[in-house]
């Protein structure tokens, strides 16, 4: 059980009333509520997972909450990041979250770290907290959070989501396994699409974030059985929960210090490979595309996004051939057929996937041009009906 | 011997979008070999060029990680067993 000093913690009459439904629970009671108030929780990220868990940690009476985030609220966040409201769009997430936490529980101390979590600041920040909750969205930060938790001896309450599926567990708690026991290495960049590319059901982080909040509260109370040693899998479409055993892996090398996590996750290598493969890439600006359209030039415009993105918005005259079809070869034949000697222009949402498609086409002997900034740049320049999705 | 293999969302593009597939095999290794024979695009996502299960993908027989099974991939699979493929996912914030 976490060593929390409650000897100087007092609960006022107002707090007694506010937390009365906890106080009459024998498993919480006055001593448990004092433990929550003495508890210091650091939340990495105040987005999809952070939003619901912060609301509940604040409401439960956690005494001190630290927030690490450097992002601002985007309108596309509001579908799932329920701690933020419309009035906070384009403003810092941590300011928005702090205001909402204090509205729920003015007795909470909220510490803000408007910074990217780095190997250079993680240990110092973690040192001031009892529990760390991982609500990040990328592999380098997840391995950094894990390693810093191991080095500072803090439990790491983990949650992760993809489309309709989520994973949750507790790492590094009471000599239990950590993230590297579950996955010694991250996948190479680009192998797994991000939420921004792959989409996510807005309610999904709500479920997983609330599971993380539950585990955090149990750790602070020292009650119940945590998910340590168990990986919980949730599937929203099936509405099913499954549990897998999670053990320490004797082959996992000990963590002795923080490293370069971007390097570890292959980010610089992937960027270098991308720029090498794109060195021969010919680009075309939205203005040049517009000129060709107005001059009635002979060209073929291929859109390599997914069919549901094509439903959201499209450039007039474009032909949909999704990147996966080009990757498996069928799309290459279709592009060749469509072109029939015409100039080829390829686009996607912002230019990454179309560059990849052009690389594959080039290997098949097909040359084409990449629309700079994709359909979003086109929309910004010429078509205000195209949403910045 | 037929086993149900559960395919996670990120890998479904490589199984014709099937969420579960029925695969024959007597051992975990045999089932996995038959799986990637049927869905060849899955192979590079699950195994390295040296044929090692990748470090960011876990395979479970029932609720047990096959790396922790005493007999490893040679572990016999009971009829109607479930094998789950669970890849590393990072999403949460964005």
Offer a concise description of the structure.
The complex is a heterodimer of chains A (389) and B (94). Chain A has 389 residues and is of the alpha/beta class. Chain A has 18 helices and 13 strands.
Overall description:
The complex is a heterodimer of chains A (389) and B (94). By secondary structure, chain A is of the alpha/beta class. Chain A is 40% helix and 16% strand. Chain A has helices at 13-18, 20-23, 29-38, 50-60, 93-104, 122-126, 139-152, 179-182, 195-198, 204-221, 261-264, 267-277, 286-294, 307-312, 323-327, 330-339, 352-363, 374-382, and strands spanning 40-44, 64-68, 109-113, 131-134, 156-162, 165-171, 230-235, 240-245, 282-284, 299-303, 319-320, 343-347, 369-371. In chain A, the strands form two sheets. An eight-stranded mixed β-sheet of chain A has the order 3-2-1-4-5-6-7-8, sandwiched between helices. In chain A, strands 9-13-12-10-11 form a five-stranded parallel β-sheet. The longest helix of chain A has 18 residues, at 204-221. Chain A is elongated, with a radius of gyration of 25 Å. The relative contact order of chain A is 0.09. Helix content of chain B is 16%, strand content 24%. Chain B is built from two helices and five strands, in the order ββααβββ. Chain B has a five-stranded mixed β-sheet with strand order 2-1-5-3-4, with helices on one face. The mean pLDDT of chain B is 90. The interface between A and B is large, with 50 and 26 residues.
Side by side, the strands of the main sheet of chain A go: 3-2-1-4-5-6-7-8
How many strands, which pairing sense, and closed or not: the largest β-sheet of chain B?
5 strands, mixed
Strand content of chain A: 15-25%
Q: Measured on Cα atoms, how large is the radius of gyration of chain B?
A: 13 Å
Shape of chain A: elongated
The first-to-last residue Cα distance of chain B is: 43 Å
| Coarse shape of chain B | globular
List the helices and strands of chain B in order.
EEHHEEE
Mean pLDDT reading of chain B:
90
In round numbers, the mean pLDDT of chain A is 94
Residue share in helices of chain A?
A: 25-40%
The residue ranges of chain A in which pLDDT falls below 50 over 5 or more consecutive positions are none
> Helical percent range of chain B?
10-25%
SS summary, helix count of chain A: 18
The rounded Rg of chain A comes to 25 Å
Strand order of the largest sheet of chain B: 2-1-5-3-4
């Amino acid at each position: 059980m976490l060593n929390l000093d409650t000897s100087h913690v007092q609960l006022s009459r107002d707090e007694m009333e506010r937390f009365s439904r906890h106080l009459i629970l024998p498993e919480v009671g006055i001593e448990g509520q004092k433990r929550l108030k003495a508890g210091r929780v650091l939340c990495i990220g105040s987005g999809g997972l952070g939003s619901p868990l912060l609301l509940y940690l604040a409401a439960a009476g956690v005494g001190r909450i630290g927030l690490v985030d450097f992002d601002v609220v985007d309108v596309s966040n509001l579908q799932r990041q329920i701690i933020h409201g419309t009035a906070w769009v384009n403003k810092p997430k941590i300011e928005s979250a702090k205001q909402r936490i204090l509205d729920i529980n003015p007795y909470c101390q909220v510490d803000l770290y408007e910074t990217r979590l780095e190997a250079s600041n993680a240990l110092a920040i973690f040192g001031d907290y009892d529990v760390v909750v991982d609500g990040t969205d990328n592999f380098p930060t997840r391995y950094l959070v894990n390693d810093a938790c191991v080095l500072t001896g803090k439990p790491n309450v983990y949650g992760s989501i993809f489309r309709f599926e989520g994973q949750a567990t507790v790492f590094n708690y009471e000599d239990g396994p950590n993230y590297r026991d579950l996955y010694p290495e991250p996948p190479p960049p680009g192998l797994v699409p991000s939420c921004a590319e792959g989409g996510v059901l807005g309610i999904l982080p709500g479920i997983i974030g609330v599971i993380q909040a539950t585990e955090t509260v149990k750790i602070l109370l020292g009650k119940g059985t945590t998910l340590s040693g168990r990986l919980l899998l949730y599937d929203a479409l099936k509405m099913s929960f499954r549990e897998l055993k999670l053990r320490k892996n004797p082959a996992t090398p000990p963590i002795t210090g923080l490293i370069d996590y971007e390097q570890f996750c292959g980010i610089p290598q992937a960027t270098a490979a991308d720029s090498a493969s794109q060195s021969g890439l010919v680009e075309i600006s939205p203005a040049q595309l517009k000129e060709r359209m107005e001059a009635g030039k002979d060209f073929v415009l291929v859109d390599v996004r997914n069919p549901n993105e094509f439903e959201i918005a499209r450039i007039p005259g474009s032909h949909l051939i999704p990147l996966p079809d080009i990757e498996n070869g069928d799309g290459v034949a279709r592009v060749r057929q469509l072109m029939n000697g015409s100039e080829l222009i390829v686009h996607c949402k912002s230019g990454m996937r179309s560059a990849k498609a052009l690389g594959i086409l080039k290997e098949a002997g097909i040359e084409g041009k990449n629309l700079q900034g994709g359909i979003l740049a086109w929309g910004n320049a010429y078509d205000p009906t195209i949403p910045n999705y | 011997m037929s086993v149900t293999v559960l395919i996670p969302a990120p890998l479904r593009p490589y199984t014709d979008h099937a969420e579960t597939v029925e695969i024959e095999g007597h051992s975990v290794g045999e089932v996995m070999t038959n799986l990637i024979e049927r869905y060849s695009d899955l192979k590079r996502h699950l195994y390295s060029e040296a044929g090692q299960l990748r470090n960011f993908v876990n395979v479970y027989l029932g609720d047990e990680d096959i790396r922790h099974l005493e007999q490893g991939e040679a572990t016999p699979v009971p009829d109607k067993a479930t094998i789950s493929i669970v890849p590393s996912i990072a999403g949460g914030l964005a």
